[in-house]
Write a sequence for this structure.
């Protein structure tokens, strides 16, 4: 693992009186691609939302690039270099593809220019004048990822990027994430599709009941399958 870019320690979070995260510990090295695995309802999405600051009832430690993120307001999270693509994608339906791409501000140097984005996502180039309402689910997912890449973020966080997508689109998104990793981007994703995750991740965190119960590199997958089958039903 490279130098730690994101470090989470003893992270607890609440929805009102409901205690959801129970001391989550996680570290992501610079340039790593990490996947959080777990059944529905164990706290995976809550972990992502707590890291980026959407959930404010939280305790523990979140450090990004050495900075304490608990004190950073939500609207400043992107300016620290963290980009979040939620499961619902958040595409502006009345704006064209190109207008959606240009909407987020550039927060730091190193953002991907439009020509490189269109090279990475040729579908979006072909549909650049189309409104968001005319895009397929796969094209919306591509647009949600592409929109973040313009901003110059250092950490890309994705929540269920392959949910409900056709196999050919899932394969394309996997190829894109591999290319982004080759460019040095650090990627954290929550993913139910274990087969997809096993082809792209460097390391896995396994989550159950609001805690990380295992952490292992991809090379240990064969010996971990018994545990994964028990926890995930794979």
């Amino acid at each position: 693992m490279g130098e730690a870019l994101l470090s989470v320690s003893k992270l607890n979070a609440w929805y009102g009186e409901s205690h959801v995260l129970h001391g989550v510990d996680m570290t992501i090295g610079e340039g790593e691609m990490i996947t959080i695995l777990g059944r529905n309802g164990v706290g995976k999405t809550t972990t992502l939302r707590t890291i980026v600051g959407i959930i404010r009832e939280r305790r523990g430690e979140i450090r990004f690039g050495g900075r304490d993120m608990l004190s950073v307001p939500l609207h400043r999270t992107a300016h620290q270099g963290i980009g979040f693509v939620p499961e619902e994608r958040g595409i502006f339906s009345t704006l064209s593809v190109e207008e959606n791409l240009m909407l987020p501000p550039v927060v730091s140097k190193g953002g991907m220019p439009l020509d490189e984005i269109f090279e990475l996502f040729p579908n979006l180039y072909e549909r650049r004048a189309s409104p968001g309402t005319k895009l397929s689910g796969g094209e919306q997912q591509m647009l949600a990822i592409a929109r973040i890449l313009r901003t110059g973020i250092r950490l890309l966080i994705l929540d269920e990027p392959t949910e409900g997508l056709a196999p050919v689109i899932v394969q394309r998104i996997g190829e894109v994430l591999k290319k982004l990793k080759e460019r040095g981007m650090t990627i954290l994703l929550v993913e139910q599709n274990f087969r997809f995750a096993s082809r792209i991740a460097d390391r896995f965190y396994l989550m159950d009941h609001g805690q990380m119960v295992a952490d292992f590199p991809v090379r240990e997958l064969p010996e971990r399958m018994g545990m994964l089958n028990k926890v995930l039903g794979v």
